[in-house]
Amino acid sequence: MAEQLRTETMTVNMGPHHPSTHGVCRLILTIDGENVVDCVPDIGFLHRAIEKICENRTYPQCIPLMDRFEYVTSMMCNWGFALATEKLTDLEVPERAEYLRVIMGELNRIASHLLCIGVTGLDLGALTPFLYTFREREDILDLFEMTCGQRLTYNYIRIGGVARDIPPEFYPKCRQFLDKIDAKCDDYEKVLTENPIWIARNKGVGILTEQLVLDYAVSGPSARASGVNFDIRKHDTYSIYDRFNFDVPVFHGCDSYDRYRARMAEIRQSARIVRQALDQMPEGEIRAKVSPKFKPKVGEVYSRVENSRGEMGFHIISDGTVKPYRVRARGGSYNHLLVTPEIVKGLKIADLVAIFASLDIIMPEIDR
Amino acid sequence: MDKLELAYWIGLLKDQVITPIFGDGAFGVLVQNVIVAFAVFGLLSLIALFLVWWERKISAHIQQRFGPMMTGWHGVLQTIADAVKLIQKEDITPKVADRAVFFWAPIICFACAFAAYVVIPWGDGLIVSDLNVGILYIIAITTFTIISLLMAGWGSNNKYALLGGMRSAAQAVSYEVPLALSILGVVMVSGSMSMQEIVKAQSGWGGFHWNIFFQPLGFFIYIIAATAEANRTPFDLPEAEQELIAGFNVEYSGMKFAMFFLAEFVNMFTVSAIATTVFLGGWNGPILPSWVWFLGKTLFMVFLFMMFRWTYPRLRVDQLMEFAWKVLLPLAFLNILYVGVVAKWLNW
What we know:
The complex is a heterodimer of chains A (368) and B (348). Chain A is an alpha+beta fold. Chain A has 14 helices and 8 strands. Helix content of chain A is 49%, strand content 13%. In chain B, helix 2 packs across helix 13, helix 6 (159-190) packs antiparallel against helix 10 and helix 10 (216-229) packs antiparallel against helix 12 (254-279). Classes of the chains: A alpha+beta (368), B mainly alpha (348). The A-B interface holds A 10, 12, 18-20, 33-34, 121-128, 131-132, 135, 191, 195, 197-198, 200-201, 348-351, 353 and B 59, 62-65, 159-160, 163, 166-167, 233-234, 236-237, 240-245, 310-319.
């Protein structure tokens, strides 16, 4: 009798169409009851060959493609590509444009973190915080719409500057939002940070050790929640980030809870940066003269920006023509997805969902 | 009897219309029973439709939305529109499904949800049948729902559905125990398992001699266990959208899905009605007619369950089990001990 009674592991395809895979990711799970024995991510469902298309476009034409590279923080993608191109040609960007880039980039970071926090709640069954964070994200999208007419794929930060200046009504609207966001963050903390179920689900779950962070090159808030103090804005300064006063929140819990707290703290820091940028912003040009037939020097460049999901880098090889010879983009999510199987083994399916959300994995960034 | 009481009018209907036409023999009783069954079924269906709309409104207002607004006044007809849509949907049975099990699961779920209302006292004298094992009957019949969920999970032949079914079975087995034990405390004091007797035992103090004042711990345990019984957040693991997509009902479509859906809301109303009857004094209350008190208290409980759902995250499956066996069960025993000692001592 005892020989006949045996249990088998079961293979479940989580995705590509699954509410919790944030895009179209397929996780091939081997489960033993509720426990995850093995997890193999299968990527590529969202592949749009952006890097290859770039080879057939001129440099300014590549910018709208970069919007689609990682559509949650399009500003950063524009910025990263523009930065790399400017580095290739030693192009001087007007000061006002730099300030505008910082303001838009940081607002976009806030929007992205709000999305992440809301979606993490959604994946844990808390349906309401999602709507709350989206309410604030909506304000940011309104600001973007006011500036560049777009709400998701902005095509705003261009090579040599930005597309257009902000309208006068932007300033009061933006300051109003900044005043609000701190109070709203307190509200989220009331709903989530202190919630016993939230703590039970997140604390000590999905331990991403410092060693794993270094091994898998995890970056961004997820790395900083594991005690790795690395922020490109501080430690490999680009643009004008050296002029602002801000902290890099570092936590040592290594778990989903601290990843959430790191994002929460970053929202407040980003708001601080935007406030300073609004105060310091000079008048002047917003765009250097760049011809549509723009030809950079022959050469190779790697330049990186701090995205809300970690290091976003662009490697461009130029052969001196109007089109790039090769573009290679790097997003943080790829490393996050690679490290996921390491930390979910032996945990429950519900934990897998929570960890996936807390690492803030976005599929377009991986598949490109 | 007060003319505002529904029981008065029902008695009048019986004496003036049904008995003269059909007689009071076996046929007359049969006609009476059929009429009662249809009346309860119709009322509950209406309540379920109302609850679906109410939940959507409450969730919307918590989340700073409007919810349904277009169909009727503030969208009151939305659920009816949804039901019409679901009836029109194609009824799909997966090729690999176990057809018989797949077919019967929603029907059993639906029937069990309604069967509990045989012994729910809607008001003074307003009860279908006052069984002397009333509360035991309810516990037994509501547990039967779980079997239908298990059948749905197994019969669908879908891995997610199976996981959902298994979760619901494990959850029901765990939470049934503290649930029954928390009610046992009241049965000990009332000295009867009949629902009407339990209500009548709470009629002192001008209708405010409620068990919740004497057994707050029992009420607390009951509320938590009942949330788990009704598969509501934070214990909605069998149908966790984000983990299991929709859990046990993932393969169901059209009217079969609607039956699960309605049964869920009827179950929520059932556990609220039991909470009202057992802990909140049932239909007891001053001035207003008894059925108004019953409905008011029950809808308040439903409101509480809805608030839980839209404010809390979901527990993990092992935390759920731990909570049932390591926290709720010892507390339930403690409650029984307390009731036993105090009831003996004070002679309630």
